[in-house]
Amino acid sequence: MSTATSAGSPADTAPDGSAVLLDVRDLQVEFRTRDGVAKAVNGVGYTVSAGQTLAVLGESGSGKSVTAQAVMGILDTPPGRITGGEVLFRGRDLLKLKEEERRKVRGAEMAMIFQDALSSLNPVLSVGAQLAEMFTVHRGMSRKDARARAVELMERVGIPAARERVGDYPHQFSGGMRQRIMIAMALALKPALIIADEPTTALDVTVQAQVMELLADLQRELRMGLILITHDLGVVADVADTIAVMYAGRIVETAPVHDIYRAPAHPYTRGLLESIPRLDRKGRALYAIKGLPPNLTRIPSGCAFHPRCPLARAVCRSGEPPLYEVSPGRRSACHFWRETLGGGEPPRDTAGVPPRDSSEEGPRD
C-alpha cells in the first residue's frame, strides 16, 4: 500500500506486507527567483509498493510535478535545487547517484509519462522509430527486431492497425492515440515504476476514461508501481489505491482512496471534492475554494491553507500542523481534522474568523 511517511521513518514494507519500491523521505526542493526563494517542495514523503497506485493531487503550483521531476532526476538545475531529503528506490538513494548511474535507472527501472504527448514526441521521427530507439540503445537490438517490438507495443496499448501505422508521425495521430504511444514508450523496457504526470489533460472525458482504464489494466498485469499525478479527483476514483493531497509544497492528507471520497479529513481535500460536478446536484452552482494558492516565496505562517480555510483559528496561523494519524494508514495535516471529518463548520464572527473555543489548541496525538 502507498502511504505518506514522515522524515526518516522506516518504510521497508507497506501496511499490507508488500515490499516498498519507492520511498521518498522529507524531500525539499527550492527555486531561486527574482522575488526570492520559492519552496516548491517542503518535506514531502510517501511510499509506493509494486502493484500499487498512488494518486498525487493538488492545484497547479502545489509541487506535485516538481516532486516527480526530482524523483526522476530531470529537475531543471538551475533554477531548481534539491536541498534535502532522500529518494530511495529499491533501497538505493537516487539523490546520491552520479548522473550516468541515474540515466541507467531512468527508462529501464523508472519511466515517466508526460501530460503533453505532442510536445514530448519528436515531430520529425515516426512513432515506430522513437519506440524502436528504446530497444536499439538500451537493449542492443537490431533495427528489424526493434521495429517488430515497436509494433508489439503499439498493439498492446490499443493502437489500431499498428503494423500499418508504425511509420506514421506524431501529428498523424489523435490526442488519445498519442497518449497511448507515450504509455507504450514508458512500458518499453518493462520498468518497475511509472510516473504519469497529468496523462489525461486536454482529452475529452471518453478518451480520459479509456486512457485511465488502459493504465490500470497494464499496472495490474505487469505489477508495476504507479504514481498518478493529477488535479482532478474525478479521474482517480477507480484506479488509485491511495491518495496523497498536496498544497503549497506539502502533503496535507493521505488516505486509502475510498476513505478520502467518503469523508475527507482536511478542509482543502473537502473543498476539492465539493468542486466536482455531481449528478445529484444538477442546477446548483459548483463550490469554489475562496482565494488563490499562496506565492511560494511568501508562504503564510502556520498552516499554509489557513487564509482560505473555513475552519481557520488562531492556532492555524501560528503553528504548522504535523501529519496527525487519523487511523492506520491515514493522516491529515489539520489541527481540526476531527471537525472536518464530521463535516461541520464553526460559527463565524463578523471578521470571518471563527471565535476561540476550548479546542483552540487543536487535538493531541
Commentary on this structure:
29% of the residues lie in helices and 22% in strands. It has 365 residues and is of the alpha/beta class. The protein folds into two domains: 1-109 and 191-292, P-loop containing nucleotide triphosphate hydrolases (Rossmann fold), CATH 3.40.50; 122-188, no CATH class. It has an eight-stranded mixed sheet with strand order 7-8-9-4-10-11-13-12, with helices on both faces. It has a five-stranded antiparallel sheet with strand order 1-3-2-5-6. The longest helix is centred in the middle third of the chain and has 18 residues, at 205-222. Residues 344-365 have low confidence and may be disordered.
Short description:
This protein is α/β, with parallel strands linked by helices and 365 residues long. It contains twelve helices and 13 strands. It has an eight-stranded mixed sheet, with helices on both faces. A five-stranded antiparallel sheet has the order 1-3-2-5-6.
What composes the largest sheet? 8 strands, mixed
The general outline is: globular
The helix content is 25-40%
User: For this structure, what is the CATH homologous superfamily of the largest domain?
Assistant: P-loop containing nucleotide triphosphate hydrolases
Instruction: Give the structural class.
Output: alpha/beta
- Based on CA atoms alone, the radius of gyration comes out at 22 Å
List low-pLDDT spans: 344-365
According to DSSP, the number of beta strands is: 13
Query: Going across the major beta sheet, what is the strand order?
Result: 7-8-9-4-10-11-13-12
Based on the structure given, which CATH architecture of the largest domain is correct? 3-Layer(aba) Sandwich
Q: If you average the pLDDT, what whole number results?
A: 86
Q: Span from first to last CA?
A: 23 Å
N-to-C series of helices and strands:
EEEEHEEHEHHHHHEHEEEHHHEEH
Strand content: 15-25%
CATH class annotation of the largest domain: Alpha Beta
Helix segment tally:
12
CATH T-level fold name of the largest domain: Rossmann fold
**Tally of distinct domains:** 2
